Amino acid sequence: MVAKAGVDAIGLNFVGGPRQIDAGKAALILDALPQNVEVWALLKVCDAHASEIVRPIVQTGRINCIQMYGLPNASHSMAVEGWPEIRKAAVRHVADERSVAEVSAWLTELKDGNQPDLILLDAGLTSATRDAAAETDKNADPASLGGTGQELNWRMLAKQKKAGVLKDWPPLVLAGGLRPENVAEAVKLVQPAWVDTSSGVESTPGKKDRCLVEAFVLAAKESQA
Question: 118-158: per-residue pLDDT in tens?
Fold first, then answer.
């Protein structure tokens, strides 16, 4: 359904939640998907079980990109042993200038050859709120906090980009509360390489709405015209 709406890529969710699928469901989707639509696999970097499930799919050559969640620090390798060369999109959550600066610092610390091919920015907690949450739960992983579903602060991000803060970053994938009615504004402000949506085009969690998908694609592509 989404392929007919004109999307450039779909995501296969092996991370969790109402959109998570298994290998059997992924195979059915890929069998029906046109070859001109890219396929991104959503994975947690430390989830060995999910990685083994996805490995046979990756080795068919049909997966174009791994969307990587839970990257703990700069020492964690972007490479996935035994897999062919494949693009990696690192997911980071930002809400303010400080969190953007933290992503810049993280990228700077990465060793040569360990840089992601893309950075997916999703909405997260502000630095102050995140610090308070981490202080409340001493076992909380600050890198995993966020992903609350609120809109990403595109105006803040656009200002950071204009100031040159993002100039050495990989190409951006913009996420965080994108819907048919706001994607055009977000694209014009930030000018990302890709935009990503899920709940913004659903009638219920995990169920895509054809009309919303078509409206989203139209708005996104018209904003680039």
Answer: 999 999 865 554 454 444 444 444 334 333 457 899 999 99
* 3 state SS of 99: helix
Alpha carbon 135 to its chain centroid, in Å, reads 27
Q: Which domains does the chain have, with CATH numbers?
A: 9-222 (3.20.20.70)
**What does the block give as tokens for 212?**
């919303």
The vertex-42 CA angle with 214 and 128, nearest 5°, equals: 95
Euclidean distance between CA atoms 26 and 28, whole angstroms = 5
How far is Cα 207 from Cα 18, in angstroms, rounded to an integer?
Answer: 9
- 71 has pLDDT over 80: no
Over residues 92-125, the pLDDT tens digits come to 999 999 999 999 999 988 866 678 999 999 998 6
Amino acid at 165: V
0.90 surpassed by pTM: no
- Whether the per-residue pLDDT at 79 is higher than 80: the answer is no
Burial class (CB in 10 A: 0-12, 13-18, 19+), 114: middle
In the beta sheet, which residues pair with residue 94? 123
Please count the other Cβ atoms lying within 10 Å of the Cβ belonging to residue 77: 13
**Sheet with 172-174, edge to edge strand ranges:** 9-13, 38-44, 65-69, 87-94, 118-123, 172-174, 194-195
